[in-house]
Amino acid sequence: MKKHYIKLAALLIIFISLAQTVQSQSKYGQVSGSFQFDGQMYKPDSELGITDSMIDGKTARMNAFGNIIYTLGNFSAGVRYEAYLPPMAGFDSRLEGHGFANRWARYKTGIIDVTVGNFYEQFGTGMIFRAYEEWTLGYDNSVDGVRAIITPMKGMTIKGIWGTQRYFWDQYEKDDRGIIRGGDMDFFLNDLFGVMENSKTKITLGAGMISRYQADQDPIYKLPENVASWSTRMNLSHGGFFWLTEYAHKINDPNAINQFIYKEGQGLFSSVSYSQKGLGIAISGKWIDNMGFKSDRTVTGDALFINFLPPNTKTHSYSLSAMYPYATQPNGEAAIQGTLNYRVPKKSFLGGKYGMGIEVNFAHIRSIEKTAIDADTPIGESGTLGYESKFLSIGNEVYFQDLGFEIDKKINKHFKLIASADMITYNMSVIEGHSGEPNVDAFVWVTDLQYRFKRKHSIRWEMSQLLTKQDQGNWLATTLEYNFAPTWFFAIMDQYNYVNSDGVISFESEDGTLHEKTYKKLHYPTISAGYTKGTTRVLLSYGRQREGILCVGGVCRAVPSSNGFKITITSSF
Amino acid sequence: MKRISLIITLVLFTIIGMAQDKGGKKLPNVTIKTITGESFNTADIDNDGNPIIVSFWALWCHPCIKELTTIADVYEDWQDETGVKLYAISIDDARSTAKVGPLVNGKGWEYEVLLDPNGDFKRALNVNMIPHTFVLDGDKNIVWQHTSFAPGAELDLIEILNKVKNGEELTDDH
Hints:
The structure holds 2 protein chains of 2 kinds. By secondary structure, chain A is mainly beta.
């Protein structure tokens, strides 16, 4: 074991010195890279219910990565080293370990672009295929294989991919997961057809196909070994008007997400927007039926996803507003969303001297209508066609709703204010899979005031409150932050779960029984500090972290409550 | 033992980072998207020999929006002084790419806005956290970069741009 490290270190030193010697002369190429270290020391906290046995001796945990990319003309190559020793609380325990998670080489000219090794890719909006990584969530479904992108003429792109997906640290072995292969074409009509060259209307058409091969080793069912999924899409723009739409289809794919039904899947995403200076409107709709698609049909959870079905809701960035985030229901959902951005002009009654920004956001998501295939088969019965559904049908159950307002306003030379209010309905039994729990209706307000008292010195004060009669009841949170640009910041923060006056949350379930739960009123104080120089950033924090769901982009991860000291060091070069 | 070797590895990484010759690095050549969905090659990021700012942001990132709003207030002055052009690269994924255009117009930003929905450009430039801002000189060499934003950081940025415009060497302070 020791030898292995010495070798690794020696290799790195050689690599680095080589990189240094060749650095000054660009004809030998250039080296760039980045790294990040996240570490946390955990301590027991009886009020949060964290005991010594839960920590189990693993008081110190860390996630880290290092990337190196070498580029020489049209050629580039890279490696990515990752270590989870052991992974921080809330990350999948299968990440434990370390090694080179990624290595690749790429050759790219104007016409051809070939990658061997690990790569990330997306077809269209990702409804049939998206390989990506998200460090903060411990998510990485990169493909290990070959990718070729050909641009035979201006306005035309053809892609082909073939490989297997990353599954934590498991090397691919015969039949232990599927092999995926696919292709995609993209045509920008204005470049392809001379008559459209100067047209104000711009149209892009695209289509893609992806197929998974996985051997049928099931003792009961006869499963399709090759599952194909395809989609077509269009982007159309005309001045400030923009329309994007994609339709996807998947052949029957009995899997652990859909409880092994033989129904085909389909989905539609469409978004229309209009904007001009000072005004922007976007409306989008999404309809999904049985579109869960993974490299291994038996796997559930956040791994081996082939496609990406983003939630059609706003991503909140204030902590209490983000308390109840929506997660896409791949087995069926109908969603609409609308967003309005408006800039109240300067020197108007509301706008004042500097103007004011207003954002209104509305999202509503429901079930789709499913009917039984015959009188004897319950909906969703494994081994059958499952159910019937009409394209674009809308069901009765509300999964999620969010109506939000936000304003941002520069008050004078020193003060800037952001204020927001959101009304959220969250179907806990569907989204978190806790059946029997009532819907959460929450109201959240936030004020974020920035006071700049010297050219580079400022204080930010954030105050927010979440009011609900369900789940864990009410919360009050405040943050006070001092910034010395661009180098230092210090912050103290407290989130107080004051539940309600007596700390008892009760609800009546459908059969009429009364459920009562008593919550402790708890404070979650944290202090933190950060130092930034160039691209290097060091963040330290100490205190309690509440249990919650952290979402970045479309994927969410449950973060357990914890108490302790945390450090992040990140840099790139 | 594992941790120690890991720390050694990280220290080595830092050394490469520190020892790295700051000038001379070019933007990688990656295909991303325009706001209306057409392909855009990052090699085409250009400003006729004037300085360029490349700033990575997302709709969900408050500090990013603060940075771009702060610069928007002084962008015209900056352009008059240095001829600078700002490319704002949104890393929002398919969930909200369609909302980027309306927000940019709604805020009245005059930047060149591009979409990097699968993080290809972000990875090629080793961006770990956003906001992450790059300054390119007239020959499109990356001469300065910084992560995070706090009010007042824009004062450093214009100072850098002025130096770049006048062809002055950037001191170690930046």
